[in-house]
Amino acid sequence: MRSRLYPVFKYTVIALWACFVAGPFFWAMTTSFKDVNGVQGGATYLPWLQYEPTVIGWRNIFGGAGGVDVMQPFFNSAVVTLAASAISLVLGSLAAYALSRYRFKFGFIKNSDIVFFFVSQRIMPPVVLVIPFFYLLQWTGLLDTILGLVIVTVALLLPIAVWVMVDFFNGIPREIDEMAMLDGCGPFQTFVRAILPNSLPGLTVAAMFCAVFGWNDFFFAFRLTFTEVQTLPQAVVALNSSIPPWWTLSAAALFGVAPLILLALWVERYLSKGNLSGAVR
Amino acid sequence: MTQLDIVDVGHSYTPGSEEERWALKPLGLTFEAGKTYALVGPSGCGKTTLLNILSGLVRPSQGQVLFDGADVTALPTKARNIAQVFQFPVIYQSMTVYENLAFPLQCRRWDKARIDAKVHQVAEALDLDDRLRQPARRLTADDKQLISLGRGLVRDDVAAVLMDEPLTVIDPQLKHSLRRKIREITEQFRPTVIYVTHDQYEAMSIAQEVLVMKDGRAMQQGTPEQLFEAPSSTYVGYFIGSPAMNFLTVDRTHGNVTLGGRALAMAWDIPQSTSESQVGIRPEYVEVVTEPGPNTFPARLRDVRDHGPQRVFEMEVAGQLIRAKVPRENGIPALEEFLVHLPRAKALPYADGRLVLHS
Amino acid sequence: MRNGSYKGLVAAAIVVALTATACTGQDPVENKPDKPALFKPGSEISYSKYSKNYPKTKVKDVPGPCSYESISRKDYSGQTLKIISHAIPVIGEPTQLHAEQFEEITGANVEVINVPFGELHQKILTPLQAGQPAYDVMFYPSLWIGDMAPHLAPVPKKYLDTPGMKDVTKAYMDVATWDGKVVQYPVDGDRHYLKVRTDVLEDPKRQAAYKAATGKDLRTPRTWTEYQEIAAYFSGKDVDGDGKPNFGSAEVTKRDDLTFSAFISRAAPYVKHPDVEGGLFFDLESMKPLINTPGFVRALEDMVKAKSTWAPGGANFGLGDEILSFGGGQSVMSYSWDDAFIQAQQPDGTIRNKIGAAELPGSDEVYNRTTKAWDKKPNQAPYFTWGWTSAVAKAARNQNMAFDYLCFFSNEANTALDLTIGRFGVNPYRKAHFDADFWEQQGWDKDVAESYVRTLSGMESSTNRVFDLRVPGVNGYMSALANGVAAALAGQKAPQRALDDVAAEWERITDQIGKDKVRSAYRHVVALEDN
Amino acid sequence: MNLSATDLCLTVDGVDHLKQVTATFVPGRLHTVIGRTMAGKTTLLRVLAGLQAVDSGALTREGADFLKTPVWRRDTAMVYQQFINYPHLNVFDNVAFPLRRAGLSRNEIRRRVISSLARVGLADFERRKPSQLSGGQQQRVALARALARGTGILLLDEPLANLDYKLREQLRDEFRTLFSDQGDTVVIYTTTEPAEAMMLGDVVLVMHEGQILQIGSPQEVFERPATTTVASIINDPPMNIFTGRIESGQVTVAGFQATHVSAHLADLPDGVYQFGLRATDVSLASAGVEGEVTFVEISGSETFVHAAVGETPFVIQIEGIHDVALGDLVKLRLRPERLFAFDEEGSLVRTPSYDLAPVEGR
Amino acid sequence: MEALRRHKSMFLLPGLLTLALIIIFPLLFTIRVSFSGWNVSNPQLDFIGGANYATMLHDSRFWASIMRLVLLAGGTVLIQYVIGFGMALLVWREARGRRLWRVLFLVPMMTTPVVMAAIWQMIFHESLGPVNDLLGMLGLAEVPWLTESGPALVALMTVEVWQWTPFMFLLLLAGLLSLPKEPFMAAAIDGADAWRTFRKVTFPLMAPVSVAAIIIRLIEASKLSDSVYVLTSGGPGSSTETPGYYLYIQGLRDQQTGYSGAMSLTYLVLMIVTLTVVAALLARAFKLKGDS
User: Fold this and answer.
1) Which residues of chain D have pLDDT under 70?
2) Which SS3 state, helix, strand or coil, does residue B58 take?
3) Could you tell me if C138 and C150 lie in one domain?
4) Backbone angles phi, psi at C38, to 5 degrees
5) Where is D308: in which H helix or E strand?
6) Which domain holds residue C168?
7) Rounded CA gap, C370 and C442, in Å?
């Protein structure tokens, strides 16, 4: 097995997978510098050699006519994602802490059932939720507002936060809580001063998942807003017409996924430090 | 069983650097075939490095490791034919007890019947024969450690069994019985065993020979009795025995050893040239007496510690602290001042912290 | 303050900030007095200042209530107009462009959202039904009128009387009318017609070769049978010498795109009997679906047969693919909206001026549902399929502004420019547009321009017209039809079986919505068809 | 200021963790609770700290119901067997944590932290994180934190159990001085080691299976163990317990020749008794009853030889370290004058007397 | 901590109530609406009994989509698991530039599914996309990626594998990084080769992480619809339709709210039952029973 061929095999496999992973990005990148002539003649890859590059696609996403302006949607996405993630992390950590530390019993319902209740929300088909959400937000006057979208997004993210944090808190010795209480902290102070500061890896993972699922939500944002709160995925999809302008679509797509790619860099750093290992289990 | 020799082996994790810090200072040792050795010392003393060098996990920056005379320094773990028991019980979770024990033999492609016979033989010795069909992961920690040991023992040709603090995570109640079991098994199978521990008493209870290590240096190798009776350094005297050995600074005037101005008769001499001369004596050998005589010194009682069947007296003799271990039935002297007797044969000479036995 | 609690503060601050933003944004409606015009009457208008993408074409602002000059007198500053439109570019791009201009000249704040076709219907209708004033102006396919009408503000007389509106052809005014009221603002005229490569079909050498091979004349097909023969002949041949094979036909076949329109085009001559009245999709009396009658089945059989003449991927072509395939020169023939034709005629197009337009193919026989027999007679039935339309919601806060926007959108200058940009999806709908000179000015060859204008105006004068099923719930019907067609194309069901299932589904939908409700809506359509 | 427990009971999943525990803990004294693992020692401490609820019973402090007081108002400090510190805080902040919660002034906090770190010998480690310290140092930090507050109750749950032997020995010595001036603090210290309990405790409580078996001074408990169980708990190695009988002035125990009863047993009626004999009171001799060595352990400076006489196991404690091979045959001698006599239920009936009158050590 | 009963609700309730408030209403609403004839032209809560459920029973498109989902989700999650595990093993320990690989391999899961599906749609475009172009260069025939049911399913699975293998990769890599060293040393000492070490050590040790990762992915995959929506719109025919997409068509695009409510609930119950059973089966398959 560990023959001299093994490294060749190993790096070949890694390289192949890397090509597959990077392929769509490469394609989007090269397409974003094309125009209709660069697209119509069939697949081309290399600028100058195979097609004449233009920045029209990129210009179009920053307010050029025939494109979309991505800046406002970017801001909306950022606010919704950050706010919903923050709320989910706060509420999720609190709930997860309770579920990790205390025993609950309401009739036949026990801790594991409550955790399951949280996590099971992820099984809900979005269609089940979106129509009622529409009326819910309408009654509260929150349709097409950032606040409304944040509330809905919290419903999507909270289960994730609870799921990650319960596991993580279970890994923190209870003695730390006890010690903090003995040291004069009430339950809330115990949580804030003794447990949270030691939960950074868990919070990081939870925050990452929240960011991923919050930022990438299209389904709900699309259906619960009209004109005021356009998020980035909506802006990209607005280009998915019967005659899609591939170049603009590619540029918008790359712009839309870029922030979270930076997140990947950050996650990897934590991973390499070994901090996340205990948190993702 | 195999004899293990290490020849001038030393290891530094930062070789060649300005301040070369030795995790293990160069040394030579011989581990005879079929004997049980313990490496003992506080954390960071180099015992784990030495173990890793033997197992092949660490390649020493200098020296040679010989297994029955063959140089294995460059060989990886797999090729050294050793067995190892780790701190945390390591078993193959997905397998039964039987499969765990059979695993090393399957890797060696033994035939079924031979594996079966061997596994049963070892399992019987380990008292696991009634649980062979159980999933190994359901066993208690101590039984898991036995399986680890067993995986080494099934291999007839195993060069050595290395044990790295195997009792660390064992419940205190069970430590005792597992220690006993390990001892029994090693007596029965007689592999060459290298046992690493930080607990000196565990080392002495298990091993025929103990190697005390400190700061990457081998301090003393010997039987438990040797370590107790004649510690080669003040450190070993401190490290072995509870309470630790007493060390009293003595003066040397005209070839005579004196303590607080009184002559101290000894069976050995202390060389002239030393800067610090000490006499070491175990608290067990310090006697509280009422009648003056040779080697008696006035003492003042500072404190008494009740250990139950014995009491430890903390006394001041010639301005120095000295402890004596006294049977409970002897009671406590009513007087504040009394005499202690230091038997001539038990008072050992130390020069600059090392035992010097010149008669 | 040590770490730990500041995070909570940040979160709290965000919530407060969000609540604050959520509670603002409702502008009061106020009608400000007019301001001075920004344009002189008859100024030259061009889009070139907005993007290099736009042609340099200049047109004159035609004086009138919707002109640049008139609209620029309005002062809508401080007011917000919310618009929903289709994705960019088709109709979405002109919506945005004219919104930007409207902002510039009136001071209004215009917000436009563009959504993909599949989403448009529910995205508009859900808030309308829920009574949520989400959008003031909506652009959508005209056939949804049955669903939308109850929520739409009728076009005020003021706008009906504009010269532009008066010039809209009868067919498109009919399309915009519901229950006697004009509730949709015409901005586009759509129909299906045939587009062919004249450089291929009219090439004498090829004509000779074709004659030799099939014994028939090569010409612009008059029937679907001829269409199939020609398409089959050219499929796989490299007709333009670019080293890649060409194909016979490009059609919209993607299920959730506009397949139903393509199918109706193919079915029209088989099912629209000039002498039979009382409904094409349903028997108006019984409301029994006719979709599984032999005429429709024949059309579906044709379409399944046609698969062999499609380019790779042709069985999942959306409108965009069809446009690229014909407009890019890959397919020799195509039938659908104008877009492919205009796209092919773009200044940098590869097959510019090598194409021609014609009526949709007809048939040699037509099914008579009253006699249940095929009548042997040549038949043509132009299909006025849906086009883009626009409307103002009843709930719009400032209806004047909304209608002014639409009036501006469709003023003569804008329409003239929009017509020339293929991807905009704006096609002739006024009598003035059926003018070959205008197209020749855009650089079209005379015969191309003439065939185009002839085809379009010819359809207007036909008496055997087919319209969309413009009833409430039309999407349900069309989606069921598309499913049936797709199932047959994918080979999952035989055509007859597929359409039987569609008919059953249609009956179910009708029952669900209410037979009378559907009938009263369908009556309007039948009235148009039966003249 | 007494802390009094009355009839504390706690059963979890059918297992008694506390069974009618009644005890009074007095300020200024150090109480050691000795018992084997799972004896209920830790549970008792957790109940006193308020970390664990009980099924029944009362706990009062200064006459007030202490059970109703939440943990954070109990004025209690606790040191765990595992070295528990706040991983995210450095040594200084760890020790300062409870002081900050108590709202002391900056200067006062600084003063107290410095002095208590000095007391545990960690003066130069203020800026280190707990993870950068050795086990012993971590435990010292925990100790410093507990001491710095000067709480009314100080609980130590086997604080030395997880330390190296030498460190244990050293800290145990230090504890004597560390706890000697605790003023009005109630100190409770649990341990499994008799020597530790004896050496540190003013009062020793012996626990077994959730029950308190005996409370008394170290000497009392050691010299007058109330039952065979106490006797084996308070001795290391555990006291040899075996059945024997007294018959017409002769004592017979398993495998040994009958001997004359010694004076302290003389007045006992004939019958079957359980006898206890400390390992130190059995010796290896050139003549005596033969036993087979089953195991040899070395602890401290002593060798424990386990030998079986017939079916009866004996532990013999020999001073110093000796090589005794497994399976050797050795000769055992008992010291009859050292026999503890218990009745058949295990209650103490006679203790051997010591030659010298016992004297308090301090 | 049991002494603190009074305080525990304080922690749990904000989150629990928030979620319950946000979730319970939609659930009740959906249950109610499933017994109504709410549709595009009749948007109200009348009562039509179980008619929607009766229709559903005969809706072969719905049941076919469920069977297809089982296949798709099962298949893609399995492929994701195998590739994710494989890649995690390759860049776990020593690998040149492993940090670069790790970042790269994580990136797809960070991207927006609808957005990337739009890119994939170009990639699979039969005449203008690179896939057929590259196949052509290799001398292979062009594949009608999105127009024939077989290739369309392959395309869909490719996108899913691309998007979510990184998720598996992340969980499994984190799992691998937290494994103790000793079992591997033990295996080396016992003389096990690489394959045996993987089978007997790595794989069993990773069992808990594996089960968790697979279940989470199955939960998410059960909602598969975004990429179907953009990529194939369920076509050709209905050959790539998943329940998520079919529900979207019925419930949102065609606004058959009542009917889609009935299907949603049925689907939800089926998913919960299936996933529970699968979780139990996996746990047994990985021999997790009896351990924590």
Assistant:
1) 354-362
2) coil
3) yes
4) -95, -15
5) strand D302-309
6) 26-187+388-426
7) 48
Q: Confirm whether C274 is domain-assigned.
A: yes
- CB distance A198–D72 less than 8 Å? no
Alpha-carbon distance of B125 to B290, in angstroms, equals 55
Q: Are D336 and D256 in contact (CB under 8 A)?
A: no
E78: tokens are 């399995």
Could you tell me which residues come within 8 angstroms of residue D247 by beta carbon, excluding any fewer than 6 positions away? D258, D270
Half-sphere exposure of B230 (CA within 13 A, CB side): 9
Measured between alpha carbons, how far is C344 from C328 in angstroms, rounded to an integer? 7
pLDDT, tens digit, 9 for 90 and up, residues C205-234: 999 999 999 989 999 999 999 999 999 999
**Quick check: is C172 in a domain?**
yes
Residue C431: closest CA among C124, C45, C172: C172
Cis peptide before B294 (omega within 30 of 0): no
DSSP assignment of D113-163 equals HHHHHHHTT-TT-TT--GGGS-HHHHHHHHHHHHHHHT-SEEEEESTTTTS
Write the DSSP string, A83-125: HHHHHHHHHHHHHHHHHHHS--EETTEEHHHHHHHHHHGGGS-
Total of domains in chain C:
2
Query: Does the distance separating the beta carbons of E101 and A14 come in below 8 Å?
Result: yes
In whole angstroms, give the CA distance from residue D109 to residue D93: 10
The Cα–Cα gap between B205 and A217 comes to: 65
Contact B190, B34 (CB under 8 A): yes
Chains that touch C (3 or more CB pairs under 8 A): A, E
Question: Are D252 and D272 a contacting pair, CB within 8 Å?
Answer: no
- Which residue in the block uniquely carries the two structure tokens 């009658």? C293
- Given a cut of 90, whether residue C335 has pLDDT beyond it is yes
| Residue E81 pLDDT > 90 | yes
8 Å CB contact of E185 and B57: yes
DSSP assignment letter at B78: G
Residue C369 and residue C285 in contact, taking contact as beta carbons nearer than 8 Å: no
Tell me the two tokens of residue B256. 């005579």
Q: Give the CATH number, domain containing residue C164.
A: 3.40.190.10
Which residue in the block uniquely carries the two structure tokens 């609690």? C5
E strand or H helix at A236: helix A232-237
- Number of other residues whose CB lies within 10 A of the CB of residue D103: 9
* Whether residue C410 sits in one domain with residue C347: no
* Mean pLDDT value across residues C48-77: 86
The H or E element that residue D211 is part of is strand D211-216
Once rounded to an integer, what is the mean pLDDT over residues B312-323? 93
Q: Which residues of chain A have pLDDT under 50?
A: 1, 277-281
Domain end residue (candidates: C377, C403, C426): C426
Selected for mutation to probe chain A from E79, E114, E202 (highest A CB count within 10 Å) is E114
3-state helix, strand, coil in chain A (%, to 5): 70, 5, 25
CB-based contact, D183 to chain E, within 8 Å: no
Instruction: Identify the CA nearest to A254 among candidates A58, A113, A10.
Output: A58
The third-level CATH classification (topology) of the domain covering E59-291 is: MetI-like fold (1.10.3720)
Residue B261: left if φ>0, alpha if ψ -120 to 50, beta else—which one? left
Residues in chain D: 362
Residue ranges of the alpha helices (H) in chain E?
5-33, 51-57, 60-90, 98-110, 113-123, 130-137, 149-177, 182-190, 194-197, 203-205, 207-221, 226-231, 243-247, 257-285
- In 3D space, the residue among A163, A250, A257 whose CA is nearest the CA of residue A218 turns out to be A257
Write the pLDDT tens digit of every residue in C376-398. 999 999 998 888 999 999 988 88
Select the residue from D298, D299, D302, D305 to test the B interface by mutation, using most B Cβ atoms within 10 A. Answer: D298
Comparing CB atoms, the residue among E110, E127, E261 nearest residue A260 is E110
pLDDT of residue A27: 93
- The per-residue pLDDT for D355 is 44
